[in-house]
Each structure stands twice: as structure tokens, then as C-alpha cells.
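Contributing: when you submit paired examples, paste them exactly as shown. First protein:
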Amino acid sequence: MEFGKKLRMILEFEGIQQKEFANIINVHPSTLSGYINEGKQPDFELVKTIATALGVSTDYLLDYTNVSQEPPLSTQELVILTKFRKLSKEKQDLLISLIEMLSEK
């Protein structure tokens, strides 16, 4: 996965706005947007700063993964997971039951 797509995925998953994150890593929002939307690449020091701010490794951020691992979650799956985590425990249980019912053949 490209760096920008991975960064967008992590920010969406964590519920962090781009402008907010740009302030956290001390770059202009348009610079961060360039990384996320235009395929621009930050220097290694900024990659380390981004990884530290997000609590992930640089390897994870740069998508150095072992081929034998399960594929990463898609953006849609991450959005679903993020919304699921915001539900009450009762609604989570209800949704799990619904998914189990829909998964039965």
C-alpha cells in the first residue's frame, strides 16, 4: 500500500483529522495533504515523527510486511470497525448477532 493511502487509513481509523495531525507533527496542512493525496514522500525524519505520533512502527507505516501475513484491512473495513467501536456494548452485541445470522448458509 502506498504511504499516503496507509497514512489516510491510520488517521481515519484513529479518528484524527488531517489538520489536527498536521499540527501534531508540525507541518502545514497542505504538506500533509500532499503526502496523503498527491503521492509526495516525507523525509525519513518526518516518517519517524509520524510513526511515533501515531504509535506505530516505521515498518508498519511504510508497509514493510511479511507476505505470509493476512492482508491489511481495507479502508471500508476500517471505517466499519471504527464505527463499531463507537457503538454501545448492547448495539455491538446486536450487530454481531445480525452478522452471524447473515453469515449462516
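Second protein:
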Amino acid sequence: MDHDRLNSDIIAALLCQFQVLISDICDKHEIPPTALIDRFEKVNARFDNLMNVNETGLIIPHEARPLTRMIAREFDTYSLSDTGHSYAT
């Protein structure tokens, strides 16, 4: 699995559609839905559960849309941490 492309597709969906459909991502990247749901739930928890996460995907509701770039950043492996270092390993 190409994590960069997976993350890129998640970020693009969030920034363009304010949602990520699990079926679209899983079909394209051949990963199990549970892997995405787990990731979505962890990110959602970091934002005080402002998003809707269920078996169909992750949705950013209208009132949380001003946070979209910050939410998308959670899926960016190369984003800088608070210390100024990349999360990439």
C-alpha cells in the first residue's frame, strides 16, 4: 500500500468535499474499512468529536468546516509537528 497516495486522497476528499467515503478509498487502495474507521475515530477524538464518523466514512459538518485544514493536516505524514519536525518516519 502506498501511504502517501492514501493520505493524499483522504486530504483531497476532505478539502474538496468535506467528507471521505470509505468505499471510495478502500476500493482504490485495497484496504479494509476498519483501518480507515480507526484512523477517522482517532482524528475525530483530537477534535472533541466534532465530525461524524460511521461505517460510510468521515463527514465534517458545516459548523466544523472552518477547521477543515487542521483536520486534513492530521492525515499529512509530512506535516510539521509542534516542534518543527516532520511526522514522517
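If you have annotations for the second protein, write them as plain sentences, like these:
The longest strand covers residues 19-21.
The mean pLDDT is 90.
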